[in-house]
């Protein structure tokens, strides 16, 4: 009964348009009408879904008005900045890595001015954009040669297409992964025209499996980092250094490893995960490796390819390299990120900094905020020990000890999470057992005031 009562309170579109048009002056009538229609639809859905959460005395017309005004001020169908309080550092849905301040500055300067993107300043003539990234990548990875493409999926595609088209590529069945729902090794292989030759089983693949699968049609052995899952128990995989032994009898064979995330910082020696350093993989003498720019590396979206010079030369010359090339902003941001690694200024890189934050540092911040907001009339607020995640399909079994602000609200956790999401700077939280958790690992110092304001403004 209360449901139909609430539905009847939904206002007519033209009434709300009339109400708010003077307050949102400057917006075209069409845009206002669309925002009001969306707001009415939104509140109708809310009533249908969970009318118990809405007080019968609520003024539905002003809710609709506020939603429409907020939508006009902060369109949700355009890209918006938000605060990630989920504690997942590399959150693929929230844009993966934040960039360092230096990267951001370099990007905006590159946007504002002309640049030497494809211009050789020494010779005063046309240059190549590859030259702007190659040296830095070579220095931080120890590779002979390197190049950058749009993302790691593009890198995998280019490598398979340019080096293994119409040939067989041997992959362990334990490594035929799907990442993020849209990247499947087997599908990308099919697209590239390379033929997949599966060996071994899901949990065990031996050296002799690879060895026995090599024929004169074999072009490559591909190893894939099983980023987002772990096979535990009765398992066996063959390391890339063992695979290198196969080159003795098959000198033409290309050994390629898709490293997925690829660490340039030794997280492993800090006791965080077992991600190998890219330089140590390159050091084994593999022909080619690829990894993402915006996962553990903490840079812009990019696919970095590093390896033997003769291999990289083939890739650079392939037509697809032009199709998959990166723009000047990516190059600017990547330059600065890699420069931070070169200078060993690791904490300039937000992704690295946030993964390395200690529970003590985080607790100090949560305490400070809790003291400021604990008098909130309708919240029950506490501090609790929890775990953050690295995210980005990286180190799925690693739990980073952290501290969270736990907030309970009489209207429930879903209501509260939505209120945080609808704040002018949306705040993305996590919910655990009817409690909203704000994980301060992924909230930066500059964002604290906004979080405090949001907590105060929600009732
Ligand atoms: C993430 C990942 C990819 C895809 O990389 P993008 O940069 O997201 O395109 C490919 N392979 C592995 C193993 C990955 O972990």
TrEMBL record:
The keyword Protein biosynthesis is assigned to this record: yes
Function recorded in the entry: Converts seryl-tRNA(Sec) to selenocysteinyl-tRNA(Sec) required for selenoprotein biosynthesis.
Pathway(s) of this molecule: Aminoacyl-tRNA biosynthesis; selenocysteinyl-tRNA(Sec) biosynthesis; selenocysteinyl-tRNA(Sec) from L-seryl-tRNA(Sec) (bacterial route): step 1/1
Catalytic activity, as annotated: L-seryl-tRNA(Sec) + selenophosphate + H(+) = L-selenocysteinyl-tRNA(Sec) + phosphate
Cell compartments where the protein resides: Cytoplasm
Protein name, UniProt field: L-seryl-tRNA(Sec) selenium transferase
Assigned protein family: Belongs to the SelA family.
Native source species: Fictibacillus halophilus
Needed co-factor(s): pyridoxal 5'-phosphate
E.C. no: 2.9.1.1
Transferase as UniProt keyword: yes
Alphabetized InterPro entries for the sequence: PyrdxlP-dep_Trfase (IPR015424), PyrdxlP-dep_Trfase_major (IPR015421), SelA-like (IPR018319), SelA_trans (IPR004534)
Any one GO MF annotation of this record: L-seryl-tRNA(Sec) selenium transferase activity
Protein keywords: Cytoplasm, Protein biosynthesis, Pyridoxal phosphate, Selenium, Transferase
Domain of life from the UniProt record: Bacteria
Pfam families reported for this sequence: SelA
């Amino acid at each position: 009964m209360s449901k139909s009562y609430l539905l009847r309170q939904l206002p007519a579109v033209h009434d709300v348009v009339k109400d708010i048009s003077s307050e949102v002056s400057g917006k075209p009538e069409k845009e206002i009408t669309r925002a009001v229609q969306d707001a009415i639809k939104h509140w109708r859905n809310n009533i249908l879904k969970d009318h118990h959460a809405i007080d019968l005395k609520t003024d539905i017309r002003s809710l609709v008005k506020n939603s429409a005004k907020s939508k006009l001020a902060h369109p949700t169908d355009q890209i918006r900045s938000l605060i990630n309080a989920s504690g997942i550092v590399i959150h693929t849905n929230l844009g993966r890595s934040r960039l360092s301040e230096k990267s951001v500055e370099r990007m905006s300067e590159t946007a504002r001015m002309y640049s030497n993107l494809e211009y050789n300043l020494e010779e005063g003539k046309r240059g190549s954009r590859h030259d702007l990234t190659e040296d830095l990548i070579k220095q931080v990875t120890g590779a002979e040669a390197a190049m950058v493409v749009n993302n790691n999926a593009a890198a995998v595609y280019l490598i398979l297409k340019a080096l293994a088209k119409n040939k067989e590529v041997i992959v362990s069945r334990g490594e035929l992964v799907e990442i993020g729902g849209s990247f499947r090794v087997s599908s990308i292989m099919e697209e590239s025209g390379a033929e997949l030759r599966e060996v071994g089983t899901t949990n065990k693949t031996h050296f002799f499996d690879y060895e026995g699968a090599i024929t004169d049609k074999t072009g490559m052995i591909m190893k894939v980092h099983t980023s987002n899952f772990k096979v535990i128990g009765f398992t066996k995989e063959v390391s890339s250094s063992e695979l290198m032994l196969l080159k003795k009898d098959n000198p033409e064979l290309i050994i390629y490893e898709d490293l997925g995330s690829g660490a340039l910082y030794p997280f492993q020696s800090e006791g965080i995960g077992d991600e190998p350093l890219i330089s140590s993989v390159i050091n084994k003498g593999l022909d080619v490796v690829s990894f993402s720019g915006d996962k553990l590396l903490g840079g812009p979206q990019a696919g970095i390819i590093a390896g033997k010079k003769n291999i990289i030369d083939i890739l650079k010359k392939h037509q697809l390299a032009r199709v998959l090339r990166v723009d000047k902003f990516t190059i600017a941001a990547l330059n600065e990120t890699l420069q931070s690694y070169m200078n060993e200024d690791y904490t300039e890189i937000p992704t690295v900094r946030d993964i390395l934050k200690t529970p003590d540092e985080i607790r100090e911040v949560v305490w400070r905020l809790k003291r400021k907001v604990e008098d909130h009339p309708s919240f029950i607020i506490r501090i609790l020990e929890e775990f953050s995640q690295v995210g980005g399909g990286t180190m799925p079994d690693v739990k980073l000890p952290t501290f969270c602000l736990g907030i309970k609200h009489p209207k429930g956790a879903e209501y509260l999470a939505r209120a945080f999401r609808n704040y002018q700077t949306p705040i993305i939280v996590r919910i655990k057992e009817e409690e909203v958790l704000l994980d301060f690992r992924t909230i930066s110092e500059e964002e604290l005031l906004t979080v405090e304001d949001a907590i105060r403004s929600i009732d």
